[in-house]
Amino acid sequence: MERGSPKFHPETAPRLGFVNARWWLFALLGLNAAWVTDLFVLGHELSAPGGMLTALGRLTGLYGALALVLQLVLISRLPWLESRLGLDRLTLWHRWTGFWVLWLLVAHVVFIVLGYAGQDGSPVLAEMGTLVFHTQDVLLATIAFVLLVAVGVTSARAARRRLRYESWHLVHLLAYLAVVLGFLHQVTVGQDFTGAPLGRLYWWTLYGAALGLVAVSRIGLPLARNLRHRLRVESVVREADDVVSLVITGHALDALPARAGQFFLWRFLTPAHWWEAHPYSLSAMPDGRRLRITVKALGDGSGWLQHVRPGTRVFAEGPYGAFTAQRRTRRRVLLIAGGVGVTPVRALLEEFARQRDDIALIYRASTADSAVLADELRRLASRCSARMFLVLGPSTGVGRFGPVLGPRHLHAMVPDVRRRDVYLCGPPGMTDAVRRTLTELAVPAEQCHTERFAFAA
Asked: Do 234 and 314 reside in the same domain of the chain?
């Protein structure tokens, strides 16, 4: 506890929850990897057909299946896990796990084909054709592998930048079909199924639990919440030429577990756009009666929301995100917002303002006209005596204290930054640069809370 703040008690439970959730996840992965290895060793001999190469092929296939199950868990959006780790972190881990899945399955294919080709004394390509077209359910596995490669290629950064979110998401859904096809291949061909009752029980339980989490968290829970709350657009308020705020109301919103700093995936149920899901943060603290989002027209995906009509029905999935006051460890707070990343920061400022603690706010924008919600921020800052700095200019700007938001500049605005929790939200380039600044200023990592405003990028 900081000197001079006897009434403040840091919320240590959320931080412990973050650590515990991370280590529980790692421990379960390690335990399952060990169990898969044990099942393989108990049910396989190196003297079996294909020898060492085939054994390596089957083992890498099993590890690939385990990594695929982990991917399902990471993207299931299980509330207990997501609220402690944050959807941005889980999405990043999901992305990197996906590349491990591909490499393990490539190794599986290569080792299996080489092993059987060596056993039969046949050319590699001929052996591959025999396995695919003349071995039970290997064709299903081949289709699953091709689908996963398509998902992996479209998830690469270069391809992701060229695809609309909806197109990328549609391709990504093919991964679920790949899981089912791969599982069918494993059921009919895998030695863990065909010759080991314990292995069958293990893999059925593992796949069933993972797919059950996806079904409950991604389908069941959103449907139940939307049937209960019946969301609709109440009003549309123009904030600037290309920015509007949408006020959304519904039934029993006080029972919706939403907090300032979180976001939802929004679907506005119009004939032309009902299938599009957009991740937007709340731009005001939830009050139990209304939710508010603020949207900037950044292309066809969000430009049409400028003209959405009051009364439009809304389907929302969430809330998501660990960028909340629960992560706070100190009485003093520094909020840093950039661009459209100001929306969750504005909601957080409203929550912190009610507690009347020591708050500093930095809002980074290229021009005064692009500083959306700046007037609201000033009013909230005045209400709670927070210090607010509006930093304007290009990202390469250099001033009296060196580069904008560099170490000297940030320290000049907030000299006690090391003794504050720092909440940072903005475009990826700005976020990365400010994180480097905070590291140079020796701000402890556990006091830095970041939301990258680039969902699933």
From this structure: yes
